[in-house]
Amino acid sequence: MSLWRRAWQGFGAPPRGRRVAGTVWVFGLGAAAGAAASVWTVHTGSNLDYGDAMAHLTISRRILDSMNPGLQQLGTVWLPLPHLLLLPFVMNLWLFKTGVAACIVGSLCLGTAAASLHRIMARIGIDGLGRLVGLAILLTNLSLLYACTTALTEPVLIATLTTCVAGLAGWATSERRLSGGELAVFAGIPAGMGVLTRYEAWALVVSGTIFVAFVCVRRGETLRRTAAYCASFLAVPATAIGWWLAYNTAWYGNPVEFLTGDYSAAAFTEVFIEQGQLTTKGNLGLSFQVLSWAILETSGVVPLLLAGAGLVVLTIQRGIDDRALVVWLLGTSTAFLLFSLTTGQHIMVNDRSLPTGAYNNRYVLSAVPWVAVLAAYLVGQWRAAAAARTVATVLIGAGLAWQVVWWGDAPEERMTVIQEGREVARAAAETRDLARWLGEHYDGGRILLDESAGNEFAFQPLVGVPLSDYYNRSSGDHFDEALADPFGHVRWVVMHRAQLVSSSTKSSVDLVTEALSDDPQFHARYELVHTAGNVGIYRRIGGDT
Amino acid sequence: MTATSSPLPIGQALLRAGLIDEAQLDAALTRQRTEGGPLGHQLLLAGALTRLQLYDALATAWEAPRIDLIAEPPDGLLLRTVPYHVSLRDGWVAHHRGSDGLVVATATPPGEALSAAVEEYFPGESPRYRTTTDWDIWQAVEKAHRDDLLFESQDRLAEDSPLHSAKSGLTSWQLRIPLLIGAVVLVGLLLSTILSFAIVITVANIVFLTSILFKTVAACRAPLRRRRILRQTLAEMQERVRRGLPPVRDSGRPESDLPIYTILMPVYREANIVEKLITNIGSLDYPKSKLDVLLLMEADDHETIEVAKSMRPPEYIRLVVVPPGHPQTKPRACNYGLAFARGEYVVIYDAEDRPESLQLRKSVEAFERDEFERTQLGATQHPLACVQASLHYFNADYNVLTRMFAVEYAHWFEAMLPGMDDSGIPLPLGGTSNHFHTDRLRELGAWDPFNVTEDADLGLRASVLGYRVTVIDSTTGEEACSQTAAWIRQRTRWIKGYMVTAAVNTRHPLQFARDVRLPGVIGMLGLIMATPLAFLVYPICLGFTALTYVGVRFIGLELPGWVVATSVVTMVFGNLLMILSAMVATTWRYNWRIGIFAVFSPIYWVLHSIAAWRALFQVIRDPHRWEKTPHGLTEDYESEAHL
Q: Are B553 and A250 in contact (CB < 8 Å)?
């Protein structure tokens, strides 16, 4: 038997106990795909297109590299895990400046997601051909590949979601009844990591618990054992959520600061509500339409058609048995997005929204594994002659190839994830040039900057100066001291030359502008050395020694 | 049974009587040539005939009619005239004194040697001999000497060497220490909360760090030891080749001269695994005629006794029912079994153990090498009293708890013990697979039945009394406890045993230090004392550093900066050190899938802490309580991780 044939048989072999053959290889393949995509985006610089991506890099680095280092630098805008994962890498200034730190994390996440997907497919009985199609859908999704090269949180979310579902699938389909400890480790820990990554994972904790209870009841477990299994699954994510609430209490005096604070998503959407732009709120039909369009644009028409057919076949063949429920678990984040879109918890803008545009469509990347498994199920369950299956697989492969070519032909028009990034980069182009100018002309001294004064100020990676040289909001009392006496503290000041009248959030007022723009003493001691639109760089006159 | 000096007549007699056929005789003779031992024993082992048939034949050959000691029990007073170990060793008992003189029942051939032995205890008498079976002799001796045997197994150590026995528990000053510490902390908190917290946390961190450093340094020495042994072996081989000798030393002892090896297997309420036990022992690569296996069962364990009897175990396995007594512990059962041990060496295996097939041979080799080095090469090392084989789990990946247990054992047996051995630190023995030189074990006073970790205690006592313990390159498969509640009970016993062992050995601390010198003191402080203490203080370290200062600041306890910093560093780096060294050792022993679970060690130690606090409570209230570990919980589960 040839090596290839043996490898193929191993790849498609049913799981043996805990072992699912090919997991390590699939992980390597996924990580390699992420690395290859990273080479491209780093080369073009598009990996730093998203302002959020640079903000994540900055938050992560300032945990250790800041005037006021510590875990409080995690803030409450975003959940902390992605920053903690980036931490060891961003401490290298080159990895931070170039965004390669995020490429490393993203590629590992893609590898993890691919390996977990492979394990899920194996656990629910999908054969080698089906698994191949599922993995192909995941790894040829250009939007996902792009996201994995940036410091966005989607790669971590997808990796944790798929790993959690793989753990649940392993537990539910095991021939031997596995212990609650196994459930806690292989599903609970990924869920715990997920809840510290994105709120979609909080929904998975709920659906996962229901799934565990369902499986237990089907097995005829006693109520006590059912409760014990559910508690085992819940233990880690509940602890993680508890820690997050405690963290908010400890640093902000409010356990739900992340939900109601000035920097929260609610505060952010408030602006859109005031402007009448949150049209999905209270409108299930529009929400569904917007979300569906985002999924279509992000997943691609070919995978989506296959997934739709797969869903029909799955439901006919399996109803809601344990294996079917595993597949449904992967749809949790999509259901959560629909819920939060309808209830106005977040905003998503695309060609089907009112108004149109490109914003936050990347959230639906978490649906890609679901689409992939459904399509894989369709192929895996199709019982036909080997030749017919091979022909069908070739056709599917051709369809996926066409999809990739079609996307690649006009990425900014056909992939909203890319489109949004490019638009953000274009809008902030002047400020980013200004940041690069500062990096090139920086000759020591401290920098005063209000990093929260608008998205365009999330450019510290482009400056490439250690963050301990910044006085900004995250440096706490030091920031106030520098605002009160800039000459005694900083050589460089970066601020809006005039305060913006309308801000996107309540917290976006430029505190530096507010304190210094009308201060004649400041203008006497600092000269404006570079401008970009409304933003100026001021350098201290003298006092450099 | 030393049935014949010339086997042919017995064989011919049995053949003539039609009890065996030519093929059976030939096979037994062949085994006798390779393995040694009496022909009759070989025939019994092969199941060619029954014990009664054999001894009937011998009775005819010896012209001494057979007597059934159960039907006609010996005169107890007369029997007790001869010490039990003499009767068991020489295979005879004085049966009764009739009108025509003393009658001796013997399982060995009457002759000059036997007459001389009898003369020693019954001078001037001309005994008449009756043949009986070795089993009858054993039963009669056990019955007549039961009180002596119970005294030997329960109280001998406490009577002869009370300083080494845990019977009296903790001394009054030792008992007061925990109460005193508690009171001091309480008063301190009332007087100055911040200062008291700072002191408690500092002390807790010092204890924790001491334990971690000891374990890590010991673990780091293990690879050095391996390299040193490898170099030593290679140098020895080269030297042998240079002198024209075979590269590997041969003891020169033929297979047939291998010593008798006693295996003690204490079981209690483990009827479910008796069959496996017999199978596992049967797979040992050691001549069966040289095996002396004692299955030690408690008298109140009727189920196990019945199952063991119904199994009809092979000839080399003896079923010993340990009479009721106090304390009803494993070491007491082992002491009882030791009284009947015929082997030059003795080993303990737990019921579920699966020793590597060559383990007994490796043990013999280690003892012989020690003897050779001391007598022939003038080595100044202490005589070897015990060799410890390493343990691994055959159900390592059954669940999370078994994985954690495997991680812990891999670190212990593959890293720490070899490292400690290399440093000359006395080794606390594991509860199983420790092989003793039988006479030296008896000299040491055997196991302390009042110590719930009699193994660790014995290792230290060997060191105190001038003997040596080392490790051998052989492993035994064990079943890791897979249930949390049972695990906590087992660990409570172990930690309590460490506490008691520390207390027993430090009744006179200076005397102890003089006996064991610096390495022994380091072992006592860094391992025996620091291990339970570290687990006791672990919640304090974890609570006040990890939770209070890493991320969450609820209680507003503003401790001095240096306390906070050192606490966090100790906690984080201490845990990291242990995790890394355990991960490496486990991956080396099993695979990365088990090794990766070392990251959960900080959580696993919370279970240790629960056990440690239970142990502390029990040490004060009930130091001799033995919480039995159930076996067979994972049934037929077989992991591939250890392969």
A: yes
